[in-house]
Amino acid sequence: MAPTQSIDPFDLAAQAADALRERTGIQTHDIALTLGSGWGGAAELLGETVAEIPATEIPGFSTPALEGHVGTLRSIRIAGDDDAPRHALVIGARTHYYEGRGVRAVVHGVRTAAAASAKTMVLTNGCGGLNPSRQPGTPVLISDHINLTATSPLEGATFVDLTDLYSQRLRDLARTVDPTLEDGVYAQFPGPHYETPAEVRMAGVLGADLVGMSTALEAIAARHAGLEVMGISLVTNLAAGIQETPLSHEEVVEAGRAAGPRIAKLLAEIVRGVK
């Protein structure tokens, strides 16, 4: 096979979707989820796993570079849909922009979800929080984002309206499960270094109250593909300059681990309610 960088990204996504249909026996996945740091346990609560496939066996995917991402794609029959079974595609193989594999690789999972007939894309992440009242372990619904990567997943004269990128309908649905969920604006930095205190202050001036290294590019690609988008962040730490101690990836992983059972249950209940 030719290197994936030389293949049309939508053709590659179609190949990946065909491989998923062949390996899972499921022709249509209704909803797709990319599970970021801390969110992986939700897959266990969604329903019955029909198939779990190593990401490297599906065209265009690679082994995740980050601890906390499982490196598989799972097809799950959503619990409670006995009369009209629905299936979720759980993408545990996120590629981050800082890995240097190119923007096409970053959004390949989203485009594969669309090619697999999904109508809804749920994007989750672990992030730094700018609001001291949102302590580590707090889930926040993404209402908008600021893309600070200086790039886009769209190529050429491709113009897409992002006014209502993060679905109000899905956020309202989420609050029927947990009325305490708040909205937040997420700023994606390129990484992999953490933001400086000055950069965090800049993000706050621009209107962000969450900072991280994923999600925004994927959300843009999802909107372009016609998917309805929900974004949920888990505050794993207060951002640089807001907390007094140095930031570390170990802190992020530990906060995700501690919050895991609670946020997994929350996300599974939200997904089961998506129609």
From TrEMBL:
Q: Where are the transmembrane segments?
A: none
Catalytic activity entry = a purine 2'-deoxy-D-ribonucleoside + phosphate = a purine nucleobase + 2-deoxy-alpha-D-ribose 1-phosphate
What Enzyme Commission number(s) appear in the record?
2.4.2.1
Entry keywords, A to Z: Glycosyltransferase, Transferase
Gene Ontology biological process terms from the UniProt entry:
nucleoside metabolic process
| Residues engaged in binding a purine D-ribonucleoside | E195, N237
Report the Pfam families cross-referenced here.
Answer: PNP_UDP_1
- An example molecular function term from Gene Ontology annotations: purine-nucleoside phosphorylase activity
Chain positions recorded as phosphate binding sites:
S37, H69, R94, T95, H96, G126, S214
Pathway in which this enzyme or protein is active: Purine metabolism; purine nucleoside salvage
A GO CC annotation recorded here is: cytoplasm
Give the family per the record.
Answer: Belongs to the PNP/MTAP phosphorylase family.
UniProt protein name: Purine nucleoside phosphorylase
Species in which this protein is naturally found: Kocuria soli
